[in-house]
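Work Package 4 report. The design task specified in the project plan requires that, given a folded chain encoded as C-alpha cells, an amino acid be chosen for each position. We show below one input record used in the internal validation round.
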C-alpha cells in the first residue's frame, strides 16, 4: 500500500530488498538514501509477512538519515516485550512517526480504524490535508468499545501468543516446512522440495486458507495465520496428510 499510495501521489518508490534472513539491509538503505532525494522511509516492525521484529537499534541508526522514518507497528501488540516498540521515541526524534491500527489486535480490520503517533510539525501538516469527513461513526463506536473491553482483548492476545508458540515446533516437525519464528499473528514457512502454491491449493481443498505470494522473493513460502487450537489441529492434520503424499 505504501508503494501504491506513493504512486497515486506522484512519488517515486525505491525498494530496498531485505537480507536473506529478512533483516533490514541497513547499508543498502543508507546507500539508497544517499543517492536519491528520498523524503520518507517506511519500515514495518514486526514485519508482514515475515513476522520478524526490526531491532530498535537499527531504527535508531536509520533515524540519523535526513528523511522522515515511518514505522508501521500494525502487529506490535503481538510482541510481549514492550521495549520492541519505538512509540515512546516520537517527539524525541522529530523525524519519527509511528502508525498503529485496531485491525489486528482488536480484530476491527473491516472498520478501517487506526492512528498515528506523530511529531507536532507533522500533525499540523496532516490536519491541513485531512478531509472534513471523519472516520465512520461505527468505527468510532467499535474503537471505544474495544478500549472499554481491554481485559477481554488482552486475554485473546495472550491465547493467540500461546498458540503461536505451541504451533511453531509442530510446524518445524513437518518435513517440507521451515517455519520462521514470528513476533506477529502469523508464521511464514519456507516450503522445501515442494511447490508452495500447490501446498496452498491442496490445503484450500481441505477448507484451510493460507497465504501464498506470487513474487520472486516469496514464491517458496506460505504464511499461516494463528487461530484457535482446534484450527491448528485441523491444519496440522492436513499438513501431515500431505507429508505422506511425498
Ligand atoms: C504492515 C501492515 N500495516 C497495516 C496494515 C493494515 O492496517 P489497516 O487495516 O489499519 O489499514 C496491514 C494489514 O495487512 C499490514 O500488514
Amino acid at each position: 500500500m505504501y508503494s501504491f499510495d506513493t504512486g497515486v501521489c506522484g512519488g517515486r518508490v525505491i525498494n530496498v530488498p531485505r537480507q536473506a534472513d529478512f533483516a533490514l539491509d541497513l547499508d543498502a538503505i543508507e546507500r539508497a538514501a544517499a543517492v536519491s532525494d528520498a523524503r520518507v522511509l517506511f519500515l514495518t516492525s514486526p514485519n508482514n509477512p515475515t513476522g520478524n521484529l526490526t531491532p530498535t537499534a537499527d531504527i535508531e541508526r536509520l533515524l540519523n538519515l535526513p528523511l522522515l522514518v515511518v514505522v508501521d507497528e500494525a502487529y506490535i501488540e503481538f510482541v510481549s516485550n514492550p521495549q520492541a516498540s519505538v512509540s515512546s521515541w516520537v517527539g524525541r526524534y522529530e523525524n519519527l512517526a509511528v502508525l498503529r491500527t485496531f485491525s489486528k489486535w482488536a480484530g476491527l480490520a473491516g472498520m478501517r480504524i487506526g492512528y498515528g503517533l506523530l511529531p507536532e510539525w507533522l500533525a499540523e501538516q496532516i490536519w491541513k490535508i485531512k478531509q472534513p469527513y471523519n472516520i465512520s461513526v461505527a468505527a468510532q463506536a467499535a474503537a471505544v468499545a474495544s478500549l472499554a473491553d481491554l481485559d477481554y482483548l488482552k486475554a485473546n492476545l495472550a491465547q493467540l501468543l500461546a498458540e503461536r508458540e505451541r504451533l511453531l515446533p509442530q510446524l518445524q516437525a513437518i518435513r517440507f516446512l521451515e517455519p520462521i519464528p514470528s513476533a506477529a499473528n502469523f508464521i511464514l514457512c519456507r516450503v522445501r522440495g515442494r511447490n508452495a502454491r500447490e501446498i496452498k491449493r491442496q490445503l484450500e481443498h481441505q477448507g484451510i486458507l493460507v497465504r501464498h505470494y506470487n513474487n520472486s522473493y516469496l514464491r517458496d513460502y506460505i504464511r499461516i495465520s494463528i487461530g484457535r487450537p482446534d484450527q491448528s489441529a485441523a491444519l496440522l492434520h492436513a499438513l501431515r496428510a500431505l507429508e505422506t503424499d511425498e
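The chain has two domains: 2-148, 151-244. Validation will be extended to a larger panel in the next phase.
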